[in-house]
Amino acid sequence: MKNSKTQVAIIGAGPAGLLLSHLLHLAGIDSVVLESRSREEIESTIRAGVLEQGTVDLLTQSGVGERMKREGFVHHGIYLRFNGHSHRIPLSELSGGRSIMVYAQHEVIKDLVKARLDAGGKIVFGVRDVRLEGLDSDSPRIHFNQDFLSCDFVAGCDGFHGISRPTIPAASRTDFKRNYPFGWFGILVEAPPATDELIYAHHERGFALVSTRSPTIQRLYFQCDPKDDVNNWPDSRIWEELHARLAGPDGWKITEGRIFQKGIIAMRSFVTEPMRYGRLFLAGDAAHIVPPTGAKGLNLAVNDVRVLSQALVSFYEKKSEDGLKDYSTTALKRVWRAEYFSWWMTSMLHRFPDDSPFQHRIQLAELDYIVHSRAKAVTLAENYTG
Ligand code: FAD
Ligand code: DHB
């Protein structure tokens, strides 16, 4: 594709970039997606698992929800587990009927890549040396490989470590951040589900989370040192830790199985403001990160591109720049709400290195409050389901 032109150049084929390209295509707007990794890599990277109702609705309405509806699992509640007992939070009952869908992020990616390629969409995989130029003009240029792409707008959907955000001069943005002194150790296991709904467990040895992927594959996480190495964790040590954090007087036990994937994830909260610089619009993890405890990252990325696609449609169809002007403010409202929720869930459920026995008791008091107060449980349910 030597020196070509498109309406919207999209950097990154994560959920944000691919869904934006798909939504623009449905409105007759041309885009090109530039992705540094291969198709095989993006379709196999293990990440999120929980989709909010709004995400499920948008994927369904835009015609890419068929396999998700068939293979995903609708959940109407979650469990909070502490002091060795599980307490069900009936999400649907508390949130006016909303639910969540457990469907892996890389499956969403596969569905979106297929939809784009089937429709003749252009995704360039394995691009190198991406550089943005002319963002303060009407015709920015993206340089990559030995090539360039001219466009009307650039969507920076290249995740937290991408080049879009750092391209914005430091004086034109404000970054807000908080790092957490722990990470998550995530595993995939061949085993039947040990629970009918997700379990978020508070324990003095640290947080643990029991999620699922299919009737034969389960997804488990536990709080760990973010600088730890997966090689320090033979399978026997992982099971010992999970049993210790999840066992209780109620006799519930996690089901063991063959572990076939291990990884450690850092935890941070991060927001850059505004999410726009000239003709560059940031969306998803490129603009903000939440710790995964609230299961919000992918859902925020989806909300950003829903708002951004509407603004771009309005620009091309009605020659109105209002949506583009409001994009950052509109998206950031939802972002900060999710930042708050994710920080709250993280703070309530994890052990901090400097925790005193007092703070530990305060966490337990808050968890107990949630399971005994409808008002407090509604707060959790409304935020969790989106
Ligand atoms: P990404 O998915 O990071 O995609 C960015 C893409 O840009 C990548 O494919 C990358 O290769 C590409 N790229 C980077 N740099 C360049 C460049 N210079 N040029 C071209 N391409 C580039 N969220 C939830 O909502 N629910 C959950 O249950 C949940 N659980 C999670 C569990 C874990 C373990 C982790 C790590 C995350 C979880 N998240 C969850 C968060 C979620 O995975 C992210 O928020 C989501 O991937 C953000 O999508 P994105 O498209 O913005 O960015
Ligand atoms: C999963 C990930 C999360 O961050 C979360 O809060 C719940 C479930 C998952 O990968 O299944």
What does this entry look like structurally?
This protein is an alpha/beta fold and 386 residues long. 37% of the residues lie in helices and 26% in strands. It has helices at residues 15-26, 39-42, 53-61, 66-71, 91-94, 105-118, 164-167, 235-246, 297-318, 322-349, 357-372, 374-385, and strands spanning 4-5, 8-11, 31-34, 50-51, 73-75, 78-82, 85-89, 100-102, 122-124, 131-133, 141-144, 147-150, 153-156, 174-190, 199-201, 208-212, 217-224, 258-273, 276-277, 280-282, 288-289. Helix 11 (357-372) packs across helix 12 (374-385). The chain starts with a strand and ends with a helix. The mean pLDDT is 97.
- How far apart the termini lie comes to 40 Å
Q: List cofactors, ions and other ligands.
A: flavin-adenine dinucleotide, 3,4-dihydroxybenzoic acid
Shape: globular
- How many helices in DSSP terms? 12
Helicity, in percent? 25-40%
Strand arrangement within the widest β-sheet reads: 7-6-15-16-17-14-18-21
Low-pLDDT segments, ≥5 res:
none
Number of strand elements = 21
> What class do helices, strands and sheet pairing give?
alpha/beta
Query: Biggest sheet: strands, sense, closure?
Result: 8 strands, mixed
> What proportion strand?
25-35%
Q: Averaging pLDDT over every residue, what do you get?
A: 97
Radius of gyration: 21 Å
